[in-house]
Structure formats: structure tokens, C-alpha cells
Amino acid sequence: MPVAPASFLDPSLLAKISDLALLARTVVDGFMHGQHRSLRKGSSLDFAEHRSYQPGDDLRRIDWRVYGRTDRFYIKEYDADTNAGVLFALDSSGSMDYGSGTVTKFAYGRMLAASLAWLSQSQGDRVGLATFTQDLEEVIPPSVRHLQRMLHTLANTTPKGSSRLVHSVERVGLLSSRAGILVLITDCYERPDALGRAVDALRMNGNDVIVFHLVDVAERDLPGDADTTFEDMESGALLPLKPDDLRNKYQTLIRDHHAALQSRLAAAGADYVRLLTNEPLDRALHAYLDARLTRGRVR
Fold it and tell me: Which Pfam families match (predicted)?
């Protein structure tokens, strides 16, 4: 019996794969296979680099790999404007090391960055990586040759220490004078206005910005009713609380914070995608492709 494509996108199963290159290829192949079988309306697989075959086109320009996945003929486009430099900025601070289930926010973010980079490079983009805590830690500039180096760095990065998200985003903006795409992967523990202003600056310099906000379900819901001591993953500070007494107020504050982030980042012209770390990666890949296609139409 064939394995359902969704199985290739389950983070709890993917976390068992130690080889990031294998993981990324598995996710992208599973996603593309699922797209081929899906009847979902309003979702396009016609990437910016391809167009449908027309009679008279040079057969040497047919992308046979795409044909093998879709049973449809696509022509490779080599317009330089369709390829982009994509920098994946991954929060590697201590708070990302939290996970109430089998997958931490950092593990999910690492899988997401690897998969999106694999997908991007397969479409001709240049890919790079920046990891950050209080400042930038590792920087790999976007290049067609840097995917394996990026995957190696992701595999060997350990979340630790405190974060200065706004400062790190500002530093990312200084890495290149060439406009590109920034994919920010973080748990967004920052004031929405401050993060919005940092994204404003990136947008003013011509960059497209996609923010993936990673949330553990326990961070959203504050489960439990017994007295519990919570530990700050970055500072180590301890806070004794009874979740049952605070849950309603806490959930209201979390919802307000998420809504403010969404509103402020939308005002900055960024794409904002909130993801629970127990949900399959297909929604993230859909969101990424939708953002790329939308930006491609308006640039």
C-alpha cells in the first residue's frame, strides 16, 4: 500500500530523520506528490520559472522532472528576474528550544528552513542562512552553491541564550545591498511595533519578507491545573504559577499579541504565517509558494 503524502509532512515523524538533506528532499517530494493528487482549487503549481508548453516551443527546454511529477509539459524559463536570493533567518535563542510534544520550536524551524531552501534551490533561487540569538551567529550568503553548507550549519546549530529579535533583523538588513527575499523563522517574542519597524526598513530597501511565527500548542493554551513552576528558557528565571487561575487572562493576552503581530506585519507589507509545531509542513510550503507567486506578479 503506498504511503500517503501527508506522512512525509508530519513533524513528529520527520524529526526522526537525522539527515537534513534526506528530510528536505522527503518533504518537498511528498508535498509535490500531494499537489499532483490534490483537487484543491485556487492553488497554483506554475512556478515563476516555468510556463506551460505551447506548440512550436523547443522540446529541449521541457522540464522532464516536472513532467514526471505532474504528467504535464512545462518549459523552463531562464529570465534572470524570476530567480531570487533567499535568505533564511532562523531564531536559535533559548526560547526556541521549548517543546511540549515531540518537536521543539527550533527543530520545527530547522526542518522548515531546510525544506524551503531545498524547494527554492530546485527552482533556481540562490539560498543562504543566518542564525541569530542576541546578534547574528552564522551567516551564509545566498548562492546557488550554498545549500549543502546551509544544511550542515542547520544540523550543527544548538539553540541557546537570549534573543534580540529586532536587532538581529536590522543586522540581516545590512548583509547585502541587493534586494531579495527574507524568510524569518522565529517564535516572535518581541513587541509588534518594534518588529514592524524593523520590517519596514527591509521593505523600504526592496526586500520581500515572509515571517513564520512558530507556536507550541502549550504556549497558546496554558494547559494544566496543578501548581507549576515555569522556567524562562533564556534567562533561567523561575516563576511559580497555577495555570487554572490565569488561563483566561493568559489566552486573551496571547490572542491579542498574535493579532497585533499579524496586523503590524501586514501594514509593513510582510507575509505573516503562524504555525503550530504539531501541524504538518504542507501549510507552510503552500504559504511560501503563495507569497512568492503574489510577489512575482506585482514586481
Answer: DUF58
* pLDDT tens-digit readout, 194-240: 999 999 999 999 999 999 999 999 999 999 888 888 888 888 888 88
When the pLDDT of each residue in the chain is averaged and rounded to a whole number, the result is: 85
Specify the CATH number for 83-298; select among 1.10.238.10, 3.40.50.410, 3.90.550.10, 3.30.980.10: 3.40.50.410
Domain spans, the chain? 5-76, 83-298
HEC profile of the chain: CCCCHHHHHCHHHHCCCCCHHHHHHHHHHHHHHHHHHCCCCCCCCCCCCEEECCCCCCHHHECHHHHHHHCCCEEECCCHHHCCEEEEEEECCHHHHCCCCCCCHHHHHHHHHHHHHHHHHHCCCEEEEEEECCCEEEEEEEECCCHHHHHHHHHCCCCCCCCCHHHHHHHHHCCCCCCCEEEEEECCCCCHHHHHHHHHHHHHCCCEEEEEEEECHHHHHCCCCCCEEEECCCCCCEEEECHHHHHHHHHHHHHHHHHHHHHHHHHCCCEEEEEECCCCCHHHHHHHHHHHHHHHHHC
